[in-house]
Design goal:
Blueprint: E1 30-34, E2 44-47, H1 50-57, H2 65-75, E3 81-85, E4 101-103, E5 109-112, E6 123-128, E7 137-144, E8 157-165, H3 174-179, E9 185-188, H4 233-239, E10 262-264, H5 273-289, E11 293-296, H6 307-315, E12 322-326, E13 330-334, E14 340-344, H7 347-360, E15 378-379, H8 385-391, E16 397-402, E17 406-409, H9 428-444, H10 455-475, H11 483-486, E18 487-490, H12 498-502, E19 509-512
Parallel strand pairs: 1-3, 1-10, 10-11, 11-12, 12-16
Antiparallel strand pairs: 2-3, 4-5, 5-9, 6-7, 7-8, 13-14, 13-15, 16-17, 18-19
Length: 534
């Protein structure tokens, strides 16, 4: 009621409606873990386009399987990706990559923002001293040039900073101002005393204009070899899935409250069958705890007859949060090798098809069929019906080609999709729809915590969750002709007993009738004997 009733008349009071709208979470944000020539190490970086990846991680590199996978991800419909760069590590667990650097003549040290040799010669700085106050301020320009650039080549990126101060007490103190904004460099004060004003960059003897001294040094450590094993790969890739020192969160845990839905580790499949199996087993366990889905690339040494045995390690996880595709590699035109064919794992391409299907049809639609065409990729093996009939009952998804249609994904089973398992998570769209519901309801019911645990709360829960489920029903996410046939939401004295209430527990039961894909289409044709009477 109103706080104080003092005068005779009408008082207006707004009452809360009890409506807490539940918004469905994203379904196809894809995380990629691999070696890249540049970018932050062991940190998940959000990118939204291929050009964004080029700016932050350097684009294609023949030693980086995921760089080609990410390019395919965006070509096939991907939208949001989380990129995690790993580097090889030595026996002590320390990164072997070092920072490229340049000393500003007794002043600040200029470091490349991330380790590696990418900055050597291509990352350049220029110092100018402004005339109004030359005693303690300077201007700094930075540019990143493409490898093998010519004098007329435009830079990839440029940055400019004016009136940088060498006084640590100044609001324009150079390290503070540059490090808060730069995507290319970091400034560090010299050890052992206050920084001096740097000297202006000398003029280039040819152009007679201020020169661009490059950063020098830098090392990449153990770099993956195209088509070969990466000796530092197993430990490096596992470092992105394990907590840091003193239990620090993993890189993907640090993106909270944002989430990832799909995980791809293209480099794992190039490490051999044993290392790939260990990495993907750990990755599947990681995805299970975070309601995410793993697309595992098969090692290219596997053949049609040996693939099922290798997948057994993934089948042992009861979650079914993974899928594999055959053949193990696709062919793409390599822009770094005069457009010659390069074999790559299908995970990035398939993740893009997941994203494309989710946006056009919904997460409940199987990412397979004639709509699931492979863009900018060709098959390395062409399977026929009998061969697909061997692997499909084992939960291994085929990719095949059709006349006039092209190459498509032709399977929608999880690794638990073997007919012998008869698992409830047999199909990819059902497993991913369940993950979507779990994460959406998890995010959308936090308002319930600490509310009075009685019928008014239960009624509000039924109202809000029911509205969310009904919205999905209208979109065609569930089977059934009526909401009663398609889903239910229960939260009452039957689901939450007095003992539960004494313990501070409220139990919510949500059920849904999933749509199973029409995997087998049977057409019966019969000849009619005699004329048809009309």
């Amino acid at each position: 009621m109103p706080a104080a009733l003092t005068y005779p008349g009408v008082y207006i009071e707004e009452l809360p409606s009890g409506v807490h709208t539940i918004v469905g979470v994203s379904t196809s944000n894809t995380a990629f873990i691999d070696w890249f020539p540049r970018g932050p190490v062991l940190a998940a970086t959000r990118i939204t386009s291929w050009l964004d990846f080029v700016r932050q991680f350097g684009g294609l590199h023949q030693g980086s399987e995921a760089s080609y996978a990410i390019q395919q991800y965006y070509r096939n419909g991907g939208q949001i990706a989380w990129v995690i760069r790993v580097t090889s590590v030595d026996g002590n667990g320390a990164s072997t990559a070092t920072l490229a650097s340049l000393q500003l003549a007794g002043s600040f040290l200029v470091n490349a923002i991330s380790p590696g040799s990418w900055a050597a010669d291509d990352l350049q700085v220029q110092v100018a001293i402004p005339t109004p106050n030359p005693s303690n301020v300077f201007n700094l320009r930075v540019r990143l040039m493409p490898p093998g650039f010519k004098p007329t080549t435009p830079p990839i990126a440029t940055e400019s900073y004016v009136n940088l101060s060498i006084d640590p007490q100044s609001p324009d103190y150079a390290p503070d101002k540059v490090n808060a904004r730069s995507n290319l460099i970091e400034l560090a004060a010299p050890a052992g005393g206050p920084a001096q004003l740097p000297s202006a960059t000398p003029d280039d003897p040819v152009t007679k204009r201020p020169g661009w001294p490059p950063l020098v040094g830098g090392a990449d450590g153990d770099v993956p070899v195209p088509g070969g094993r990466w000796s530092g790969g197993p430990k490096a890739l596992m470092s992105a899935l394990e907590p840091g020192p003193a239990g620090q969160p993993t890189p993907l845990d640090r993106i909270s409250p944002e989430i990832f839905n799909i995980l791809c580790i293209p480099a794992a499949a190039r490490l051999g069958e044993n290392d790939a199996g260990a990495i993907y087993t750990a990755a599947l366990a990681y995805c299970r705890e975070r309601r995410a889905f793993l697309i595992a690339d098969l090692p290219d040494s596997l053949r049609l007859s040996t693939t099922s045995a290798w997948v057994d390690a993934l089948r042992s996880d009861p979650s079914g949060n993974a899928a594999v595709y055959f053949p193990p590699t696709l062919l793409v035109a390599d822009e770094l090798a005069s457009l010659r064919d390069r074999p790559i794992g299908p995970s990035g391409t398939v993740a893009g098809i997941y994203a494309r299907t989710d946006s056009t049809r919904g997460v409940w639609k199987a990412p397979a069929g004639i709509e699931a065409g492979l863009v900018s990729a060709r098959l390395t093996e062409y399977l026929v019906d009998n061969e697909i009939g061997e692997i499909n009952p084992e939960g291994i998804n085929a990719m095949r080609a059709f006349p006039a249609i092209g190459s498509v994904v032709w399977g929608a089973r999880t690794v638990r999709g073997s007919d012998q398992l008869a698992d409830q998570w047999k199909y990819i769209p059902i497993r991913r729809l369940a993950l979507f519901l779990e994460e959406s309801l998890y995010q959308g019911t936090r308002w319930v915590v600490f509310e009075p645990n009685d019928e008014p709360l239960w009624a509000a829960i039924r109202l809000n969750l029911g509205a969310f489920m009904h919205h999905l029903f209208v979109q065609g996410a569930f089977q059934g002709q009526t909401p009663k046939d398609a889903y239910f939401v229960k939260c009452d004295a039957q689901t939450t007993t007095q003992e539960d209430r004494d313990l501070g527990v409220v139990n919510i039961l949500v059920g849904f009738a999933p749509l199973k894909p029409a995997e087998f289409v049977v057409i019966q044709i019969q000849q009619i004997a005699g004329a048809i009477q009309t």
